[in-house]
Amino acid sequence: GTSNVVEAVRHVRSIMGEIRTLRDMDDDEVFAYAKRIAAPYDLVMQTKQLGRLPVVLFAAGGVATPADAALMMQLGCDGIFVGSSIFKSGDHARHARTIVQAITHCRSLRPSTLPPRRPRWHTFAVELCPVCRDREREEEMNGEKERKKKNGEREIDKWANLSLTKVSLSILTGNNKIMGGASNS
């Protein structure tokens, strides 16, 4: 972790850039690359096939605002560690709730709903967490996504209105397994 969100962004962009480079390699190049970075070939090949790390990628350090959290999710993180920034605000629960909501809802924002001339990352076209990603893939396979789009239905995420009394304030993520102790209000 870092204490500066700019460094956290650079770090995640570096990771995702390496993965994009890896995806463009053929199998012989992957073998040489794995050898060069002293990583197991199977793990490097799995990363290439998935197009992401085969483990959870958390952003840590410097994430202090809902915008920072949403940005890190858009860059490819699966979750966010938020530390003392929550306790520096006047209303701890409200600040934590806004960060959770930014992570939960950043997928639902569309460029057309945003003011013009915002930086590209404000469009929040992201995949949130492995659980959300799997749910979205299942919906696509079942044609649910198209049906919802046709009927104008909006997915209501059960994590939208969290009671933060049971949520660890150190880990704020869209991953249901991590937030399993949270209750709806």
From TrEMBL:
Keywords: Lyase, Pyridoxal phosphate, Schiff base. One of its GO terms (biological process) is pyridoxal phosphate biosynthetic process. InterPro entries: Aldolase_TIM, PdxS/SNZ, PdxS/SNZ_N, RibuloseP-bd_barrel. This is pyridoxal 5'-phosphate synthase (glutamine hydrolyzing). PROSITE patterns: PDXS_SNZ_1 (PS01235), PDXS_SNZ_2 (PS51129). Its EC number is 4.3.3.6. It comes from the Eukaryota. Coiled coil: none annotated. Belongs to the PdxS/SNZ family. GO terms for molecular function: pyridoxal 5'-phosphate synthase (glutamine hydrolysing) activity. Pathway: Cofactor biosynthesis; pyridoxal 5'-phosphate biosynthesis. Pfam families: SOR_SNZ (PF01680). Residues 1-60 form the PdxS/SNZ N-terminal domain. It is an enzyme of class 4 (lyase). Catalyzes the formation of pyridoxal 5'-phosphate from ribose 5-phosphate (RBP), glyceraldehyde 3-phosphate (G3P) and ammonia. The ammonia is provided by PDX2. Can also use ribulose 5-phosphate and dihydroxyacetone phosphate as substrates, resulting from enzyme-catalyzed isomerization of RBP and G3P, respectively. Also plays an indirect role in resistance to singlet oxygen-generating photosensitizers. It catalyses: aldehydo-D-ribose 5-phosphate + D-glyceraldehyde 3-phosphate + L-glutamine = pyridoxal 5'-phosphate + L-glutamate + phosphate + 3 H2O + H(+). It comes from Oryza sativa subsp. japonica.
